[in-house]
Design brief:
mainly beta
Length: about 70
């Protein structure tokens, strides 16, 4: 029996999202970009990869420094 590889999202609009895949990707994306489109302005969030030994990896919301 193979254990599923779990990818979690922490923070922002994807907080709490869990994706399960059969095996880990050979080269996981270092950053995932989430674009929220609605009737107002486009909102972009960046999630950076961090490994979590317990279950696979997680993407944590990048804290953007104010310009």
């Amino acid at each position: 029996m193979t254990n599923a590889y779990v990818v979690r999202f922490v923070g922002g609009p994807l907080d709490g999202r869990v994706d399960t895949v059969g095996k880990p990707p050979e080269t996981p994306k270092p950053t995932v970009t989430h674009v929220h489109l609605h009737s107002g302005p486009k909102i972009v969030h960046h999630y950076d990869l961090q490994y979590a030994v317990e279950y696979g990896c997680e993407y944590r919301l990048r804290v953007e420094e104010p310009s």
